[in-house]
Each structure stands twice: as structure tokens, then as C-alpha cells.
Amino acid sequence: MRLYSLSVLYKGDPKVHLLKAAYDVSTFSFFQRSSVQEFMTFTSQLITERSALGSRASVKEQEYLCHVYVRSDGLAGVVIADNEYPQRVCFTLLDKVLDEFSRQVSKMDWPSGSPATISYSALDGYLSKYQVQTP
């Protein structure tokens, strides 16, 4: 059971953009890592774009499950995990991250923000904390 990506996005008008993301691509070969990360970013944006405000969904993409939660204020979170990772845990994580993000990052910064301009450093910690360690 693995988590590969945790992203916070803003579903604005007309398009979705990434605010902050954390990735764990350590299980992929060195040469695959950048393209896997690009795939995860693209997939996260696409799923958020296709999801309605105030909705939660789990979408299967190749051998991954993408869990998306779009809040009614446009703030969205996406977790990309393997098929075995519990769905309930993913949505609990998304709730926690989006609540904390919206408290720490001003709503005024969401429409124009980008990973370079948003200061929110907790994603990497959450990604490793929620990683299931296999014995």
C-alpha cells in the first residue's frame, strides 16, 4: 500500500491550477521519475477539472486510484495511491490537509498562486506520515 502524490489545487474560472504538491516517486527507476511526476500532476489537474464543486470521487487511472475532493470554495485536493490503499484514509487525509491549508494560506492567494509562491510545507510530512510501512 503506497501513496504517490498529494496535491492541493484551485478550481477557478476558467481552469484548474496547482497550488502545492508532494510526490513520492522513490519506487520508480531514476529515469522514470520526472515523467511519472508529470503524469501525476497532469492527472490531478484533469480529475479536479472534471469534478463538480463540493464533490468527492475516486477514479481508477492505470494501476492507480486517484481520490479527489473539491470543496465548494474551489479548493481541491488529490491523493494518488495504489489500489490497495484504503479510500476512507485518503479522504480523511484530504479533509485534514485542505482545512489546514485554508487556515494557513489566504484565500486571496488561491486564484493566482503557484507552487513557487505558496508557502505551505506540510505536504511532504503528511505524505510520509500516511505512507504504510510494509514489514
UniProtKB/TrEMBL annotation:
Its main location: membrane. It is found in: Endomembrane system. Belongs to the synaptobrevin family. InterPro entries: Longin-like_dom_sf, Longin_dom. Keywords: Lipoprotein, Membrane, Methylation, Palmitate, Prenylation, Protein transport, Transport. It is a lipid-anchor. Residues 8-127 form the Longin domain. One of its GO terms (biological process) is endoplasmic reticulum to Golgi vesicle-mediated transport. It comes from Pitta sordida (Hooded pitta). Transmembrane segments: none annotated. It holds the Pfam family Longin. GO terms for cellular component: Golgi apparatus. GO terms for molecular function: SNAP receptor activity. PANTHER family: SYNAPTOBREVIN HOMOLOG YKT6. Signal peptide: none annotated. This is YKT6B protein. SUPFAM superfamilies: SNARE-like (SSF64356).
